[in-house]
Amino acid sequence: MLLDFKGVTAIYGRPGAGKTSLAMRIAHERIKAGERVLWISLYEDKETLLKNAESLGYDLSKAEVWDMIFVKTDAILNQVVSAVSQSDYKLVVVDSISSVVEGGQSREYLINAVYRVFKPAGIDFIGIAEEEAVTPLDYIADNLIRLEFNLVNGVAERRMYVVKARGRRAGYFLEFDILSGKGVVFLDDLPRPQPKGVWERRVDALSGGIGAIRGGNIYLVVGRGATPLLARAAAELSREGLRVLYRVFSRDATAVSAMVEKFGGRAVVQRVEPQPHSYITHIKGFYDNLAEINPDVVISEGVDVEFLMYGSKARDINLYELGELRRLGIAAFINVDRDWGLRHLSDVVILLRRGEAVIYSPNGRRTCRYEQDPAPRLMC
């Protein structure tokens, strides 16, 4: 995603929100484009700044870096104005502008510098500020970017709010995270697989109740005891030439793999152990899995674990992943003990209970038998 904010940009938020990391990404991209960048650091030395940038995958070695720790505000502004007036900088970053605007006279000097130096010269300016110190930069800024960081049930959630943007849409937010070696990563930055062609297959395990399995459809299976049914469906779909990824959250992957093979098929069976991490990290792992395995069918058994681990955030994760599977033309089977609000996202819902299956589909409601012998299947 291109962060091509022009003019005066204020990036602000609470400590740890990712303000400096976001500015590093913007500076890195501008340097790669061949532009000259001046970075003025008011709280850390040059060596530390470059080392931190490198750890995120950003190369700021070609930027001109001034570390002006403990330098008086007037001296800083005088030196900046003098340097900008005599050089061909395309971007100037001040981190953090908070200390520069503490006094009334300093604020006036900054405003004059913006209107008399930066704007006439067409030099883009980024001021990084703590949330409580963004004024007066907020009302003279062309772009106002607020960063927010929260922990929701132990899951990191970072958002970039575009409060104001010159000549472009504003009043929206984008989720992002800060990953080692990757820097600031937005959902739009993640490589997305290409959609598959339209396909459908009939299988004995399920088609008696729900008809042909179609790529891009979401099948929600609610209830315990679904493993034999799903394992047989996986085996039959694999014999039809489809690649199946079978994800288990609360069972032994080896036992499920053996069950699929018992029914005469093969699947890539993975044990999924959710850990509290970020939304973006979770989605990145999802994409990495799809790219590596290239499945036509994804079966996720015991997804309740995600909701128990991530709380309400699990719904957002599943909403995004199921939407992507639908877009890609991958058939998805989601098994849960309770629907967790996933029912309205599904094309077909199968409720398993006491040897029967109640099925909700575009064709209406029907009740079928869930037979176990001689092989698990739905009979209607």
Describe this structure in words.
There is one protein chain. The chain has helices at residues 19-32, 46-55, 73-86, 104-121, 137-140, 207-210, 227-239, 253-262, 279-293, 304-310, 313-328; strands spanning 8-13, 37-41, 64-67, 91-95, 124-130, 143-152, 155-164, 172-179, 183-186, 200-201, 213-214, 218-222, 244-248, 268-271, 297-301, 331-336, 348-353, 356-361, 364-371, 377-379. Helix content is 33%, strand content 29%. The two termini are 50 Å apart. Strand 13, helix 8 (253-262) and strand 14 (268-271) form a beta-alpha-beta unit. The longest helix is centred in the first third of the chain and has 18 residues, at 104-121. The radius of gyration is 27 Å and the shape is elongated.
Strand tally: 20
Output the radius of gyration.
27 Å
Intertermini distance: 50 Å
Low-confidence stretches: none
| Main sheet summary | 9 strands, mixed
Structural class from helices and strands? alpha/beta
Query: Which descriptor suits the 3D outline?
Result: elongated
What is the overall number of helices? 11
**Roughly what percent helix?**
25-40%
Report the sheet-strand fraction: 25-35%
**Largest sheet, order of strands side by side?**
3-2-4-5-1-6-7-8-9
Mean pLDDT: 89
